[in-house]
Amino acid sequence: MFDRILVANRGEIACRVMATARRLGIATVTIFSSADRNARHVAMADEAIHVGGAAASESYLRGPAIIEAALRTGAKAIHPGYGFLSENPDFAEAVEAAGLTFIGPPASAIRAMGLKDAAKALMDRAGVPIVPGWHGESLDPALLFKEAERIGYPVLIKARAGGGGKGMRLVERSGDFHDSLEGAMREAEASFGDPHCLIERYITSPRHVEIQVLADTHGHVVHLFERDCSLQRRHQKVIEEAPAPGMSAEMRAAMGRAAVEAARAIGYAGAGTVEFIADGTRGLRPDGFWFMEMNTRLQVEHPVTEAITGLDLVEWQLRIAAGASLPFVQDDLAIDGHAFEARICAEDVTRGFLPATGQISHLAMPPHAAFEHSPVRIDSGVVEGDSITPHYDPMIAKLIVHGETREDALARLISVLGMIEIAGTTTNLALLRALARHDGFARGEVDTGLIARDLDRLVEVAGTDRRHMAIAAIVSLGLLRRPVGTDPWYNLVGWRQWSTNASHIRLERRGNGHDFVVSSLGGHRFEVACGGWRIALSVRATNDHAVECELEGHVFHARLAIAGEHVTIFLDGDAHGFDCPDPLAGEDEPAEADDGITAPMPGLVKLVGASEGERVMKGQRLFVLEAMKMEHTLVAPRDGIVEILGAAEGDQVEDGTLLLRLRSEETGDG
């Protein structure tokens, strides 16, 4: 076994690898960018080496610098994690050429599966079923359009390199094909340095089911059963589970055999995942699944497989890379219970899943284990006070739960999601809670279109009732004080001898302002008025982050997170954030809502679709913004003429930057 390894990654996966290495007595070295100097993975490693600037291209993608860091620190092997250089065969070869061990498959296996078109041809020859489509080399839009017409809509355009939903577009009619192809190629070039795309028939009720394989260097290959990853948004996974609901023993055996044959066909070694698309219209069946791709690395969702098998996949990556043989065969493996993984991300679901940035001012998790088997496991690479930046993936944590049955595990998932508190950035926690409670999901009726079909219901903003607003107003005014000692004069808050003390405050939530009048009645009792309503309630601080409230005989508890002018109320499993703007601060006069386009998040301007003085039509694509390697299209809010163009292609813009302002076509110059 190695005595020292370098982990060539960041965040949660770097911490995950180092946790297993530490358990095995292996010293760890990691790398960091300028943006990650104080990151958790840096603190967790025995040594850390700075390798460049904040952008991944200047740091985590600098193969020579990473190899030099390993040699300089005496590391014997490099673990690439996932993402970045994990599926780069040139990097794997360079690691081996430097006399180090690459903790992953041979470069030849990575290369064989690295391009989806070549991989599908290889799998077809190996007898693994593939989805009908076009897998050629051409970049000619006219030819690709002709092939799409031949296949028949809907079709899926997919980057042949990489994964994670990047460079992927669903096209449902021919009129959308060219714009979708252009966007997919541009995103593929930005993410993988390869604009080539393939086109496949789109399965209308698709289930995304993948098989985890494990292979040593002595010819032994096993599969560790399946994971269902069908709950997706924009082709990126949200909640994964193992085993797959509705999976028969017959189909599991057929899919497992196909995955093992795929691994054997390319001489695979280590942990890998063979992904299949299944037709869910008539349930899972052995003749209704097709090969999509193989991820020649560890998957984000690998903990659900660990939960149902009891195996540590990182440990087996390390042991296999060190030359060990698998001590078990397929018949030795069995499924134990059921597991779910929910990805907690900094993103604004109500704004089309836009990535969110900001400092995590409050982070509270229920009791759990980290990076090891447990009924409740939370793997994370961030801590309270960390900032989510536009440079990297916005995932904050992964929640993994395990139970004896699917029903047990789902109940645990719902319960734990309701106990997680995050403030300082917008997250997808409300969506995860809604999905966990979704009737169809509870019945195991899942496919990749579920979120899109039920999006309105799933992203319905949790109602902010008078309780939340009243507590926020009282807290923001500083009217709560925990008793200190027995001095009654010190502990009187808001008391007046001759009259009721009334305080005024304005709070904003989701862009809407509310004016409150809060009267202190003594004895932790308050009256709160806003608009046409008025309520009286008791609010008592039980500690710095919690209050006990009583309203009309109902006693309930709420948690608090206060950061500057922002207060978040955690109540009934939901977060309700309020801003208390400085009344003396001036405000810039905003443009009319229909006159301007502002950047919805920090990002890189990849495309500008108009110039100053040009006439544009409502819905016309005007900007493409890239954030965290995903593209976001901004369109004209109305017909008009471009009066101001505030950004050019290649500009890095901040959230709220004015990108464009329109004027009406009637100029008055006649």
Descriptive account of the structure:
By secondary structure, the chain is α+β, with helices and mostly antiparallel strands. It has five domains: 4-103, Rossmann fold, CATH 3.40.50; 132-201, ATP-grasp fold, A domain (Dna Ligase, domain 1), CATH 3.30.1490.20; 206-458, ATP-grasp fold, B domain (D-amino Acid Aminotransferase, Chain A, domain 1, 2-Layer Sandwich), CATH 3.30.470; 466-579, 2-Layer Sandwich (Glycoprotein, Type 4 Pilin), CATH 3.30.700.40; 596-663, RNA polymerase II/Efflux pump adaptor protein, barrel-sandwich hybrid domain (OB fold (Dihydrolipoamide Acetyltransferase, E2P)). It is built from 17 helices and 39 strands. Strand 24 and strand 25 form a beta hairpin. The protein is globular. It starts with a strand and ends in a 7-residue tail after the last strand. The relative contact order is 0.08.
| Number of H/I helices | 17
What would you call the shape?
A: globular
Total tally of structural domains:
5
In total, the number of strands is 39
Provide the CATH top-level class of the largest domain. Answer: Alpha Beta
CATH topology of the largest domain: D-amino Acid Aminotransferase, Chain A, domain 1
CATH superfamily of the largest domain: ATP-grasp fold, B domain
Q: What is the rounded distance between the termini?
A: 83 Å
Average pLDDT works out at 90
In angstroms, what is the radius of gyration?
A: 27 Å
Strand order of the largest sheet: 14-13-10-11-12-15-22-20
Beta-strand percentage? 25-35%
The helix content is 10-25%
Major sheet details: 8 strands, antiparallel
Task: Indicate the CATH architecture of the largest domain.
Answer: 2-Layer Sandwich
Class per helix and strand makeup: alpha+beta
